[in-house]
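ugh ok so i messed up the first submission bc i forgot one of the chains. this is the corrected input, ALL of the components this time, i swear. 996 residues overall. if the numbers dont match what u have on ur side tell me asap before i send this to the collaborators (the ones from the other lab, u know who)
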Amino acid sequence: MSEASGTGKAAPRRPAAGGKKTAVSAPQTTVEQALAVARADGEMVVIADETSTANLRWAGNTLTTNGVATSRALTVISIDRRADGTAGVGAVTRSGVTADQVEDLVREAEKSAAEASPAEDVQELVPPGDLTLSEFYTHYNTAYNDVDRAGFSVFRGFAAQLGDTLRAAEGAGRKLYGFAEHGVTSTFVGTSAGVRLRYDQPAGRLELNAKSADLTRSAWAGAATRDFTDVDVAALDAGLAERLEWQARRVDLPAGRYETLLPPTATSDLMIYLYWSAGAREAAEGRTVFSKTGGGTRVGERLSPVPAELFSDPGYAGLECAPFVIAHSSGRDSSVFDNGLAAGRANWISSGVLNTLHSSRFSAATAGLPVTPAVDNLIMSAPGASASLDSMIASTKRGLLLTCLWYIRLVDPQTLLLTGLTRDGVYLVENGEITGAVNNFRFNESPVGMLGRLIEVGATQKTLPREWGDYFNRAAMPALRIDAFNMSSVSQAS
Amino acid sequence: MADHDGQIDADFTTLPLRDLAGTALDVARTLGADHADFRVERVRGQRIALSDGNLESLSDADDSGIAVRVVVDGTWGFASAVDLTPEAARDAARQAVEVAKVTAAMNTERIELAPEPAYGDVSWVSAYEVDPFAVSPKEKADLLATWSRQLLAHPVVSHVDASLYAVKECKFYTDGATTTTQQRVRLHPQITATAVTESGFDDMRTLAPPAGRGWEYLTGTGWDFHAELAELPELLEEKLNAPSVGAGRYDLVIDPSNLWLTIHESIGHATELDRALGYEAAYAGTSFATFDKLGQLQYGSPVLNVTGDRTAVHGLATVGYDDEGVAGQSWDLISGGVLVGYQLDRRMAVLKGFGRSNGCAFADSPGHMPLQRMANVSLRPAENGPSADDLIAGVENGIYILGDKSWSIDMQRYNFQFTGQRFYRISNGRLDGQLRDVAYQATTTDFWNSMEAVGGPQTYLLGGAFNCGKGQPGQVAPVSHGAPAALFRQVRVLNTTQEGSA
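and heres the new structure output, hopefully the right one now
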């Protein structure tokens, strides 16, 4: 048991704000200040995040909640190298740090590093390298000001349009529910090895759910957007009104295996889970679906008879994200030592074959795979695939068309068996036509197993993952036709 | 004796809380707010993760800021800021009023709040002994490393993942009539042993629940980690060699270490009034337990008695006052199997004429507006009720389930599926070795109506989670669920291996 220092009297490391000058510096200045006060023989990574968000929420054709928020966080990662080649790491994040508090935060991180057990992922810090020539290096020195922030003003035009749509829906006997959110996070990374990088990440989304007045019919559409200029809420509502009409005829079907059309959002939620599960380290340790029985990984193994591609690319148009590693803390396949490491396009599945797994430098070495940092977007495609969802419906003899998936959770990591629900519209397709709305189902399916039963891949388009959009909303996916999708039981939910 | 002496951290109480509040509330009222409330929060979280006894990650984060919520002409407005300065408080108040005015055109339901007595200037501290942030990270990591090495010494254990998540939440609230300053602490330790074999892998995790306790929780108070860790490798070995379950219908005896999560999903969320009224329809979903069924719905068998509370000692949802200044309470949700209550905030309480909120407003950070969030929702044990062994003795062909693992439920809280950490076959009233690959799947009311008996207080355990998600923007809330062991008849059991085979 440690000697407890009473919380009422200790905590000298967090200075009180009251009565002190609380000047707020530009984020670059804060990063430089932290690096400048670091212990002379120490190594350090400093990350400044400036975030601003605005949101609107509505239900039953009326506003429910709203808000704007700004935050500013400073992460100091101190590295204490030791004579035996090990290193301790102290990572401390504080919000609202002012100029007079930066040095205290650095000392706190250094103290934590000095006391820490050896970090398992110890490496040399990443040298500045080629990224010093990139726009992200230049941008580091660009002034950060209010122009970079998301404000409620992004919704001025949209709120009026939405108000009109809500009133029109009320008049037409539909209830609209939904959420709109816009935010920008600017991240500044500086290291004692000379890395200086900045990335501004805008992110926005609109989710619209339409229900019949008696709430027995429900349809959903979502859109990921960087700035709301490409969002047409009235058009989304018109599409949902058509879907509610499709639900006029109800067909009850039992649980079972069905040929199933997954629209892009449903594809994205399953493929994102596959991506999250595609870490190099645990695969090499024998404990994921990508582990080879008897040792090693399944890299090089065919997963699908269709030459499908699954990849991440920070430069993908409309889904741009940071092309370098930003790691506030280490994890199984991420490492604070990798901050600033270039993270380019990565092909996870190529022509239906597992090509690589995501990794830090440490986990890649452990797994014997090339270093491939995770990237914050995901794209699936197939060569020459151009079919629209409508044309895939038209070529269906008998099958189910889903709208989206919900409450997806891992059941068995050995096969990556997932469970979850269909939501907001399951349709029976017969002889190329929608013939009615079907009850919802609970599914038990593995996205890896499903790739082996892939019949058709449609055209790739940007989509909003319904389930994972809170955490991962940069995705471009095709509709998929899957043979024998396992609907395990009927859900009464509507 | 508690090391904090029931005191809130001085570095929070010495912030200019009341000055900032005065500034924000004055500006909001001057600009036309009919109601204004103000929060200052500091939420400190520390995560330590070890892989096979080596330190994988240690991070410490502190999220501070201010929040202003207003009602202007019947419309909400909310704004938050990170700086604890009069300028930031003034700007946030102005922004909150502006947001309310911009969005008023979309609003057709006038916001009103249920009345609550004024409590003056009060404070509250949760029940813990040793502040986990007063213990060095090294001491924490060393303990986890010792436990990891102990498990790794067993030949069946290939890998050990050990983690500890500690949170200290300091919160100041005022609406002018009630001013509260509160501090609470919680810990979530988890240790998982994994066995990799020639044919695959499997794992087993500790059943120790997250708790509203301090560092003492890991050193012998409230849970016996030594005893649990000592038996974990052999339990894992037995699981590896266990037969796969045959799919079908079984009687289930469910331990509270598993049942808490079923309560959470199928009763906790289903009895949130905002969900029942459709306010979460587009995201978290609605509830089959609609308001018209209050006092009518036979939710479960007569032995189903469920309470909501924000008062249970060491409960993760326990507070002195909620984020609307409502005092913590305890009330019935299901009595004798019949739905008799909901979880409310002040807005929901007014909407359906409940008169007073039962104190379920919570915001997870200064950047978020309070929502109706879950209280501790708990299944009442039977006074002088049976032990788990007694319940098992009443089963001819069944399964005894311990520990939570996979979970999923639909958007109206009908259809659910759960797995667990350990499953034992019950044959003729006795445990008959472990089983593998078990999931149980049911419709909520069928399941709770199949509950034949609940155990006595000696079987009661407070389970829970740190990460209950709800709302947009998404918020997480800590919540506990107490339960005794309970007996259910003829529940559908799946074989998860068969479910995953094409």
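quick check: Chain B touches chain A through 112 residues (CB under 8 Å). that seems consistent at least. Chain B has eleven helices and 22 strands.
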